[in-house]
Amino acid sequence: MADIDDDYYLDNDEQTVVIIMTSGPSTPGRCATPFYLGAVMASMDVHVHIFFTMEGVRLMEQGVADDLRAMEDGKLIKDFIQDAKRAGVRLHVCQPALPGYRIDASSDLIDDVDEVNRASELADLILRSDKTITF
């Protein structure tokens, strides 16, 4: 068996992944995996940020994820969100997308949201990340 070079393994503690979430309640089958994948990576000591933009901001609106499931009889999306938060995933909401969905950042978002950001902050996250994934 060949030896694997120690440099092959990365120190996950220094890895940053940004997940850009544009999917929302109109496509529930796409709404669980970003949280699940984010929780898995965060549990591996990766710094994970999920940035919600376009229809994705609706998932951070109070009440929207409460009864939403990716598949019939599957786990609730709100439970995937809570799992991701417990694992250490940071949740960002795109401020410019909110008015189009009549969402008020000061009163309509769930408590799990860490930050409401402008597009320039998303650009900065992407440029500083090791990997960027979109849903």
From TrEMBL:
It comes from Thioalkalivibrio versutus. The lineage of its organism: Bacteria, Pseudomonadati, Pseudomonadota, Gammaproteobacteria, Chromatiales. SUPFAM superfamilies: DsrEFH-like. Pfam families: DsrE. This is Sulfur reduction protein DsrE. Signal peptide: none annotated. InterPro entries: DsrEFH-like (IPR027396), Sulphur_relay_DsrE/F-like (IPR003787).
